[in-house]
Amino acid sequence: MGRDSEDEGVDTQEAIMRATYRALCKHGYANLTMQAIADEFDKTKGVIHYHYDTKETLLVAFLEYLLDAFNENIAVDENEEPETRLLTLIDTLLFGPPERGEFDHWELMVALLEVRSEAPYNEEFRRQFTHNYETIEATLVAIIEDGIDRGKFRDVDPQLAATLFLTALNGARIYQVALRRDDVAQLTRDGLEAIIDDWLRRSDASTDR
């Protein structure tokens, strides 16, 4: 991300968030310091401390910023058929939005994984990640319930189905980011599509893809 071009015209807090993102992607969480963030910022470190007293308060705000960007990427069109919405959500969670978002998808996944590793030790991180998980889970449940109501999906337990999909999706993203396995996301996508075809979709329901 080009600092001069991308930070031009944005407010100070937004610029701090972008600088933190660049520093995190460059150094990782363990080596992330206020100075490393300041090195990616076009103002002094004092400006960062003016807005955020400590590194922890900055990172709490930064996680909220990352998750907001992530949630914007996974919005689904409520007018689409349930199976189309489900596959679109799966694709977006695995590969990013169809139109490139503000952040590179896999860079964003790396940044979230870096911060998520601290969630067992940080109550606020854990709270935000829990809310994010529950938001995605609720979206999946709503899609599956709608598909059942329309007679497109079998009468399965929507909560169990959502948990199955979300567990597979989260595992695939972590696996691909941690091991740099470029094939994991596509293999997971193919597997989940097979589950939809062979288990979730009613055999007498016409395909809506």
Automatic annotation (TrEMBL):
Pfam families: TetR_C_6, TetR_N. Residues 10-70 form the HTH tetR-type domain. Keywords: DNA-binding, Repressor, Transcription, Transcription regulation. The keyword Transcription applies. GO terms for molecular function: DNA-binding transcription factor activity; transcription cis-regulatory region binding. The keyword Calcium does not apply. Residues 33-52 bind DNA. InterPro entries: BetI_C, Homeodomain-like_sf, HTH-type_TetR-like_transc_reg, HTH_TetR, Tet_transcr_reg_TetR-rel_C_sf. This is TetR family transcriptional regulator.
